[in-house]
Amino acid sequence: MAEFVLPYQTAIWTLFGLALLNLGQLLVSDIAGIRAKHKPGFPVEARGASFLFRSSRAFANTNESLGAFLLLVLASVLLAASPHWTNILALGYLASRIVYTLAYYMHWAVFRSVVFGLGIAILFGLAMNIVL
User: Hey, what's the torsion of the CAs at 79, 5, 126, 29, to 10 degrees?
Assistant: First the structure.
């Protein structure tokens, strides 16, 4: 591994953790679709009480913010942002996505929204870590 990446190893491992989370969400959503006899290729009905809807939205929401996280971690490494803060914020983001997913699955709407806001704040923290 390149020497300049070594201080960011924790942040790099969080990318792997996020990939595993994303894969897990995909599997949960697919299994929920099979159990609900959902026809592939058709939209999932927007019903908050439906586990299929909640699992597909949790997966989609992770995908929506994944690009920002990937780019911010990459920029942090390439622009030599503080490895300490990059690693802490990356772990915080991964933790927020895991908790967000579980809150969505459990139908804890208010808590889920708070955790989502925390994840967005962490993304802004990563951006500030780069420019400061």
Answer: 130
